[in-house]
Write a structure and sequence with these properties.
Its EC number is 4.2.2.n1. Residues 143-294 form the Lytic transglycosylase MltA domain. This is peptidoglycan lytic exotransglycosylase. InterPro entries: 3D_dom (IPR010611), MltA (IPR026044), MltA_B (IPR005300), RlpA-like_sf (IPR036908). This protein is of the alpha+beta class. The chain has two domains: 3-14 and 40-138 and 305-384, RlpA-like domain (Barwin-like endoglucanases), CATH 2.40.40.10; 143-296, Beta Barrel (Ribosomal Protein L25, Chain P). The protein is 26% helix and 24% strand. The chain is built from eleven helices and 17 strands. Strands 3-16-13-15-14-17 form a six-stranded mixed barrel. It has a six-stranded mixed sheet with strand order 5-9-4-10-11-12.
Length: 395
């Protein structure tokens, strides 16, 4: 049996196990055995999906048959909240169009949350991209100590610099950067340059963080809360980024033998950095990426769709492969991550067809689960029936 087949078999087994844990009223007559239902391939449509999707190997997969007993209500509510933005967005993956979601979004408005499992099973085609072998991590909304005014040892939390823009550099690449004194588009300042004061007169300061390690991890999460001495809280959301590549410091620590394989979870990294402050600061500066924030005054935190993200329902995904707003089913080896999610967010480190980042909210449990989340399994992306652009069906 192939690895993919074993993953599908595991998914079906856990579906059945999940059903068995919930009492179901006995039918008055014996229920007929479930009959496998083949899923017909969609008719080829033009235009074909983009080259990256073709290379990933899109295939149509039969939806698991035992979904209706699963608790899918959180993901269903997140999907319904995403529908207005989903209908307006251009699908970067090329798998669907905004119009393709109109019927299921309309139907979702009249579906009760307790019927979410059947809705996801019956109204969508379940597709796998590149075989569907998936890896998932976790993120959360951290809370850090801070101040509204500068205090000794505190570090600034920056808003968007006024000179951060999109421009075309001399090498022909277009992206985030700045126009220098000669009128030339250049890369924007790196983390070390920013920490050394390069944007002191270019960017607003929203607040001051008491601990540079906490601020660094708030940047990794992309949103969070700053609690001030008087007990008030400022909520921060992702606003922009300096255009530099993200470097995972946990990977650096493993490669250098500082932390053992599997030991580079968030808390272990924080502990090492606080025990070795000079080395920790240098390690953070190897990640040239830097995040700029904005203050959130309404619901939040907000994801990439400008819709509030939902604990235990939102995943960040790569929009080149997963339509933002689409439901996703993860059959993972971590029970916390197993089940329905909705792709409402993106992330600098979330790249690839089957790379996901699960959102857990705020608080101690969220911090613990997200900080230790490392799950492997398979993923299905759910799209409205018959709307997959140019997908190649495989039995």
């Amino acid at each position: 049996m192939t690895r993919a087949a074993r993953a599908v078999a595991l998914a079906t087994f856990i579906f059945l196990s999940a059903c068995a844990t919930r009492p179901v009223p006995a039918p008055t007559q014996p229920a007929p055995a479930p009959v496998p239902r083949p899923v017909p391939p969609p008719a080829p449509l033009a235009p074909p999906p983009p080259a990256n999707a073709i290379a990933a190997g899109i295939s149509l997969a039969a939806a698991p048959q035992f979904v209706t007993q699963m608790d899918a209500s959180r993901a269903f509510k997140a999907f319904r909240a995403s529908c207005p933005a989903l209908l307006r967005r251009q699908d970067q993956s090329g798998l669907t169009s905004g119009a393709a979601w109109a019927a299921v979004c309309t139907e979702a408005s009249a579906v009760a949350p307790e019927a979410a499992g059947a809705f996801f099973r019956d109204r969508f085609d379940w597709i796998s991209v590149g075989g569907g072998k998936a890896f998932a991590t976790g993120y959360y909304e951290p809370e850090i100590a801070g101040s509204r005014s500068p205090l000794p040892g505190y570090v600034p939390i920056h808003g968007i610099p006024r000179d951060l823009t999109r421009c075309t550099r001399l090498d022909g690449q277009t992206g985030r950067g700045r126009v220098d004194e000669t009128g030339t588009c250049v890369l924007y300042f790196t983390r070390p340059e920013i920490e050394d004061g390069a944007i002191a007169d270019r960017a607003p300061i929203l607040a001051w963080a008491a601990d540079n390690v906490d601020l660094f991890f708030l940047e990794i999460q992309g949103s969070g809360r700053v609690r001030f001495p008087d007990g008030t809280v400022m909520r921060l959301g992702y606003a922009n980024q300096n255009g530099r590549d993200y470097v995972a410091i946990g990977r650096l620590l493993r490669e250098r033998g500082i932390l053992p394989p599997g030991g580079a979870n968030m808390q272990a990294i924080k502990d090492w950095m606080r025990a070795n402050p000079d080395q920790g600061r240098q390690l953070m500066r190897e990640n040239l990426s830097y995040i700029f924030f904005r203050e959130l005054t309404g619901p939040g935190p907000l994801g990439a769709m400008n819709v509030p993200v939902s604990p235990k329902a939102t995943v960040a995904a790569d929009p080149r492969f997963v339509p933002l707003g689409a439901p996703v089913f993860l059959a993972m080896d971590r029970p916390e991550a197993y089940g329905f999610w909705v792709a409402q967010d993106t992330g600098g480190a979330i790249k690839g067809a089957n790379r996901f980042d699960t959102f857990w909210g705020a608080g101690e449990d969220a911090t613990r689960i997200a900080g230790g989340m490392s799950a492997n399994g398979v993923a299905w992306v759910l799209v409205p029936k018959g709307t997959v652009n140019g997908a190649t069906a495989q039995p």
